[in-house]
User: What shape does this take?
Amino acid sequence: MALKHQTPMLDQLESGPWPSFVTGLKRLAESEDKPYADMMQDLLGQLEYSYTTRKGFWKGGTVGVRGYGAGIIPRFSEVASKFPESSEFHTLRVQPPAGMHYDTDTLRKMCDIWEEHGSGLIAFHGQSGDIMFQGSTTEGTQAAFDALNEIGFDLGGAGAGVRTSMSCVGGARCEQSCYNEQKAHRMIINSTLDDMHRPSLPYKFKFKFSGCANDCVNASHRSDFAVLGTWRDDMKVDQEAFKQYVAERGRKEINDQVINMCPTRALSMNDDDTLDVDNKSCVRCMHCINVLTKALSPGDDKGVTILLGGKRTLKIGDLMGSVIVPFKKLDTEEDFEELVELAESCIEFFAENALEHERIGEMVERIGLINFLDGVGLEVDPNMVTHPRTSSYVRTDDWDEEVAKWEARKGAVAAE
Amino acid sequence: MSEAPRMPDECGVPDPMPLMHPVMRENFGNWAWHDRPRPGVLHHVAKSGAEIWTIKAGTQRQMDVYTIRHLCDIADQFADGHVRFTARSNIEFMVSDQARVQPLIDKLTEDGFPVGGTGNSISMISHTQGWLHCDIPGTDASGVVKALMDEIYQDFIHEEMPNRVKITTSCCQINCGGQGDIAINVQHTKPPIINHDLVANMCERPAVVARCPVAAIRPAMVAGKPTLEVDEKKCICCGACYPPCPPMQINDPVNSKLAIWVGGKHSSTRTKPTFHKLVVAGLPNNPPRWPEVADVVKRILAAYKEDGRPWERMSEWIDRIGWPRFFEATGLPFTRHHIEDWRGGRSSLNTSSHVHF
Assistant: This one.
């Protein structure tokens, strides 16, 4: 089947070595035996029109599936008179399996469903981690969702609610994994689904799960609640393997690329080419472990550090997540349940105290970290700051009482 | 009586265990070490002695069902019928036998899926929806990425950069693409053009007023209709008013420009995470291949590749050489717009006598 619209601009994106999405769109448009062919003909036409006018032509609206208040991104064309067949082109946001593992049987079923009920265009994955089934009509949306739901997949988040989450490959393949990322991901999200499917929070709330400081799913900045793996005992050193690296790569390279790049000067090479580690100074940044994978690895007493409040520009400017829990064990069912309880407390406090369209990081910026910690029942810790305050504008009438609390906490830890 | 409608099974996040490659499932949480035998290939060894090779390939992210089935055919024939995707839309095939690595690489390469994206390469550019599907885009996403990946293809399939390079694109200043070693983001340069006939019906006006970061929006009456107006002297052209109020059109074919930012980093590896910083603005939004953007990106990459030391990310390289040398090495101008005047901006000033000559 010939293409209905000329696409000279898009045609230029078919050449070159990288896989071309335009070639894929055209193939869908040329599948004349398929129900989506006409829709994709006009979609190509509208996209070319955007390329020539340098403007977007989609508007939102209200489309949903029974029982849910989110998860469908409605798109209606503003140029439907020119491109009527793609006048409705909604996206279903579908949550991926934790760690984004698939077997081909599942992927083929998704293709079959989307070929029957949608446009045949799927993105793996959106920036929050959703599988994006792009291009359904208002009428086709419910049937597409029902079919995906029947094979075990559920809609993700949109709007002012809990959003779809991501976890790194973690324990499935990575020796640097410090906790069961997929379990934490599934437990937290599956216990906050009500706030995802029927969003009524002040604004969006994102969780992300990375197994170590390398943060492969960008949790620190791209989530409101970041769970990062770490450990608190000594890192492991296989001295024979370390010496082997020195023998192979030379002292200069190991000094330049490992020892001298340690951010806290916790490493030094001994005269016999073994490694000296000052574990009390180490901040578990992962650099040396990344370089010398056979010699160095995280310790045994693993757990997580939790950062809160990461977000991009709107409205007050960028915020990195900051530490609210320096270390938490995540071994037993009880540990995981405590993590879920903390997540729920944060959402609850957010729901009650944030202004409309204010992210939790912005709320903390407005009310101060101390008020937030009091609200969710967390104790202060020097790991929460880069340095203590520099401003003297603070009332310290209750200094002695606060010191007593610190002493009591220290005593309790010592007694453990 | 008609049948009750089907209600959703709120099953949430699928359990990956049944979908996972069996060697990964069997050795879950018990891996010992890994290495990279060649670009695009990871080799992991479990404490049990089991081994798995991962072959990573680039995709176009926005995939038609034919492409997905094609990748499934490759997985069934050359791997073990399992794949996973990375956060940057690369696909990973796993094999438990080293002899199966090369045939898989050959097949992927032959079929047009570049093998790479590991270690100190430039990985796939993370991108957003753009003109294909977004309701507020200033530019396209998939097209910008396709055009740029064609240009930097060699650095995807090789590992020749000082450290990994993460590039992101975003079609508006909300920046859904996120932080990047290099970020390519729309930067509007003119206040919104308001259709006063539509504001009262389409916009919740107090919410729009509250959305403005610089309090430049106020209620107004125009031709007897309640609407909103913008104090254009205060307006920073960020476009925050446009999503809640589409009649406040911020996108403009000429005045919506592209800006390039460098030095964003998510990981806590070595240095703490950093935000990307503005280095160039005012580039034209020039589809279908955005050559002016590609030119600047390639200049920055060339300078970093030339001068960065092993393991230095973009931000760490610039920390070492200093911003004057960055602008010199890339041939880019430094202007008054590079100096932060947003809240907290003072922390970006040089409060020392440390000066680069």
